[in-house]
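Hey,

The postdoc asked me to send both predictions to you directly instead of through the lab channel. I've kept everything plain text so nothing gets mangled by the mail client. Protein one:
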Amino acid sequence: VEVKIEVVIPEKERSKEEMSPNGKASPLIYKVNGTARHYHLEEHPIASNPYHNPKDVVEASVCHVKDLENGQMREVDLGCGKALLIKESGEFHAVGHKCPHYGAPLVKGVLSKGRVRCPWHGACFNIGTGDIEDFPGLDSLPRFQVKIEKEKVYIRASKQALQTQRRTKMMAKCISLSNYNLSSTNVLIIGAGAAGLVCAETLRQEGFSDRIVMCTMDRHLPYDRPKLSKSMDSHPEQIALRPKEFFCTYDIEVLTEMQVAAVDIKSKIAVFKDGFKMEYNKLLIATGNTPKALSCKGKEMENVFNIRTPEDANRVVKLATSKNVVIVGASFLGMEAAAYLAERAHSVSLVELEEVPFKKFFGERVGRAVMKMFENNRVKFYMQTEVSELREQEGKLKEVVLKSGKVLRADVCVVGVGAVPATGFLKQSGINIDSKGFIVVNKMMQTNIPGVFAAGDAVTFPLALRNNKKVNVPHWQMAHMHGRIAALNMLAHGMEISTVPYLWTAMFGKSIRYAGHGEGFDDVVIQGDLDELKFVAFYTKSDEVVAVASMNYDPIVSKVAEVLAAGRTIRKRDVDAVVFLSFRTGDMSWLTGKGS
């Protein structure tokens, strides 16, 4: 049975550009807030009962109404799983209790103005709907029914949702593939990292039902790239962001091992390295960056790695076990790899041009504390020097020669000396590229070319936190948000980016959390004990706090991120006068403007 629905749209709305090629609209289109939206009929089934299987439902009394004050959260047990009960503005809400990203307990996070922020990596969820509002991660929280009877609070929940603790947003499917040939798509996404995947998912979540094609030089479907240096023996299927079935279900096509060589913006055609051409209507460029290589003799020798793929990371672990490892560059990748390999290798040596690791990012005092932690775990540093030569024996790496004259035994060398934006193929395209190779975009992730968007590590964009200064933030959380903003503006939502950068690094079982953008900081105010690796560092520029980092002080970074996201300013005098007392008492109400 074929059901056709005709939606009559006012003439002035109908004249606006539809997200469909060659002027052909999808079978079902309607307008919401002036935006074209395309829905599959299966997307919104009518159901009076949200729990279709009564056997899958549990209902339990979890507390008295007076047990929670406004602004409080409590983890409650329903017998077959837990939920997070929240009271805000006199109303109770119940959602999943674990962050879908890495499973952080949200009860230890930060509740602020209708959303809860993860204490580990900063993802934010709406307490009323469970929807994810800031990243990292792809899934939302399950939302559970709450009712009040005789002063008692009851939660009614699906057993399955209690067990999975995650919810994938409802998505449309492609219903117009027959309108396309293989060399034509409505949306083309170059790059299959976080930005590209979130863009594709957001389009489907918003009801877009035309063709979406992602292409990547990688041989794998999108995966959790930060784990390449944090968990180096992870296999591709273990770190996949979505299973293969997901892409099939929602008609998101992924072309692997496909490299775009040029973009013709006038004809709206992407030309691939093998000569294949694809026509597009909207384009997202999310190509990320390319690791820098060493410039010394022997740089192309066997057993010298830039960790770019799961295979690279796996190979390094295998070759490094009980062997001598030299890591060049105290970057995030270099330091994380050194920490991971320290327990497996016979020796780990780290070569760095600067005096202290992370000096420009975390400051000298924090950098020295981190360096001491590494030295206590058998990592040997060779600072303020560079590699002059890589020597081989029987075709394999044997020694790393430093400009200082020191010769290091080496069976494996990992290079982590930074990266450059992967935008060389755009030089003749007409797309605005700055002097460093970054794609310049506005707050809506739009380039200077209509219909062409860019996101992720390869762009500079106006950061609201720093008075709209154009910055590059090459971190996982920001790539997610870029992809979402780009997708919404492909659909003409007029959404501007305003998120607070949030990142983390993990070494020897400890994590440093960081929020804000500290580039150009002129002072660091530290509270806590650096020697004990329990501290918080506030990075200031003039009188204003522009970033914060912490170790073993959760959820202070998430708390500050919420303050900055609300547009509030933290002054240096606030840190000096109040922070230490706040840590002693656990009271951080001064940060939200409450209390004295």
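Protein two:
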Amino acid sequence: AGCRLPAAHNVCSLLARRTHGFYARDAGVAYRKNLGLLRKLMCQESTKFKNVWTTHSASPIAYERGRIYLDNYQCCISSIAQEPRILYQKAKCTKSEKIEDALLLECPLGGTLPSPSDYKSSLIVLTVRNWLLRLSADSGEILQKVYLTSSSCKFRYLSWDTPHEIMVIKSAQNKLPAAAQEAGVEESVLFYLAVFQVLPLSFIGMLEINKKIFGNSVTDVAVSNGILIVMYSMGLVRLYNFQAIMEEFMEQPFDLGDEFNWNDQVGVVGKYPFGLPCNIKITDTPPVLFEASSLANAFQIGGYPWHYIITPNKKKHNGVFHICSLKDNALAKNGIQEMKCCSLEPDWIYFHPDMSGRIIHVGPSLIKILKLKEVKNNTDQMEIAEDFTIVANRENCVNNAVTITASGRVVKKRFNLLDDDPEQETFKIVDYEDELDLLSTVAVTQIGADGRAHLDFHCNEHGILLKSIPLLESWDVTYSHEVYFDKDLVLHIEQKPNRRFSCYVYQMVCDTAKDGECSSPERTERVFCTKGGRIFEY
């Protein structure tokens, strides 16, 4: 028999032990052990990442949890298999069926769902004609259809209020036709928001963001974690309780499929041509929970206790970040963070996604991981302290303002290199892999037309470099790039001029051979074509 742990004395202790995986029969324990083994395998010296296949496209390429989407989500490729495998491919869609945005929906743990299809991953997509579709992630089959509205409102954006629970659909900013504007007609509605609960997909309500309620200078809105965020042209950001707004101003609840008589219209909720009723009417300005002024409306909340990050609302302060307490707006000790770098691209800062309350500040050659801690002898104030740093490899970089030639002549440079000069190694991407608890960075050096990038894995707790993976394809710093690190997979999506897209997939290979000999059969290059003529190499 194995070693028996001492019995827990109370329920709280028992739950705490379960969350830390002390009981071998608990769900998730084996999975956590497997992820620990995968991390060790991935970071050992003999493990390599090989470019297993590549594709090129004339339309945007998207990636979601092991699936690569092409041709406006009409073609889905599994990136999990050793060889590229088409999960499904639909006929080319018309312009009226074009997909504007998409969200991957995965079944929550626990709970009973009404349909067997609800337990499998699905893709929620929004079309240009205001249709909301739920598709099977494995076959592309349409599982549900909801018509949003037949009005001039154009819904464009999908986002999570609460991930995999509450979804918000936002319209493009409502603008009158030119003829109506010339005639002096005024439009007070700026945006529409439609709110849904998912799995099962059900309608909660739809509301207007009206300038008569929120003001004339509103430029954008967002919903996150039960908070309505309203942004203004002068840099002001205001927060409202979104849940309270829905409860207070809900005129009448409706379910999908209900027959209704609304504003002299008779129809079925979610069916064409009626769509959804605007059943949340905000008639009075709701109380403001919090407001702050920040350059370009840049505003973030996080940390423990709660803090927020802003940039003072003047152009001269661009690149200066203030970290303040949400409780009393007090600036934290050492709360002004500035890289003081001279670069074309600005540095950026955000709260660490690992829920540790730390802060990541990224500059061209330096990544700072910051933490909040109590000021000594003053528990009411917090200070910003450095947890660790990651520094770009610029050992071979020489940028002397004055040089002396072999003949002894003194030559002075008329200008200095920028901190993000392409010829110096520069950080371009920083990400976090939550399942393996690894911090990943992409650093790039470009000499002439040839740019070289490498993806590094760092210990999330201490910042120690554990693994470096060279990306074989050339990296042009003037192009747009996305890099995804998903367990044993690395995926690089590149957007070139004239809407040319490329996707490079790397997979982990454990190579135990010595002296550079490959222990597995050499990779043979093969090519196959999809119905649309797309070429894949692997």
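Summary for protein two, as requested: Confidence is low (pLDDT under 50) at residues 514-538.

Thanks,
C.
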